[in-house]
Amino acid sequence: MPITLEQYNRVQLYLDGEMTEAQQQEFLSQLRNDPELQESCEFEKHLRKNARSIRHTDELVALSRQDQELTAADPERTAAVRVLIETAGREWREERRQRNIWIAAAACFVLIAGSLVLFLNTHHGKAAAGKELFAQFFQKDVVPEGNYPMLARAFKDYNNNDYSTIQHYDLANMPTLKGADDQREKILALGYYYRGVSYLLTDDPEKAAVSLQWVIDHPSSEDLVWKAQWYKSLALVRTSHTEEAKKLLRTLAANTHAGQYAQQANALLQKLEANAH
């Protein structure tokens, strides 16, 4: 609500120190229980501090010195000054509202910026820890012995640290040699497995996880599945997907037939659990 003339006069008397002790006590009691009166008082303090920014301040000051009966005897003057007071009050409220909006916006910005910094620091810490564990546990797997004509060139390049051949080989449309239909699934699984390992070697763990999951979903041999689970867990650790990595590692560690991969899974799991604390 706009500032009333009565409120204005009472506030002026209080701020000018022209109230008796009894009047002051009564005013303070009303001030504590009347939000509008509190706002009027704040407005007048603002007005006195910033008098040059409000037009016709002399009219307001003159009004504060007038007796109420004299003011009532000049209704036109009173009405004009009332308009000035109410206009100034609206301007002050709008200025304070805008200031509060900016303060709130600034506070939100600080909160968001602080949260972002905390998130980035936390994320950076997790990424660094994952990278360190990956480097500690990862070792390049060697290609298997045997004759695999469809993968011969890819395996040769892999051994020579050239991983582009296996990464770009069209495994989905790989032809089947005559008389080797029963070997196609095994060759495919080997292709996807070494493609996954090659992506880890070229620091592309997201693609590695996809290729290794294909091997897990198409089990041509148990030992290859165990190896795929192990390397996929390393890919998950490398990308800070710690909980997903733990789940896969627990499965592998509990497999009594997985041999060294179960042991490695258990060791890595212990490291992850220790880092969580």
Explain what you see.
The chain has 277 residues and is mainly alpha-helical. The protein folds into 2 domains: 5-102, no CATH class; 138-276, Tetratricopeptide repeat domain (Serine Threonine Protein Phosphatase 5, Tetratricopeptide repeat). The chain is 75% helix and 0% strand. It has 13 helices and no strands. It is rod-shaped, with a radius of gyration of 40 Å. The two termini are 57 Å apart. Residues 52-61, 63-71 and 118-122 have low confidence and may be disordered.
CATH superfamily of the largest domain: Tetratricopeptide repeat domain
Beta-strand portion reads under 5%
Radius of gyration: 40 Å
List the helices and strands in order.
HHHHHHHHHHHHH
- CATH architectural category of the largest domain: Alpha Horseshoe
Average pLDDT metric:
79
Low-confidence stretches: 52-61, 63-71, 118-122
User: Looking at CATH, which topology of the largest domain would you report?
Assistant: Serine Threonine Protein Phosphatase 5, Tetratricopeptide repeat
Helix content: over 70%
Total number of helices? 13
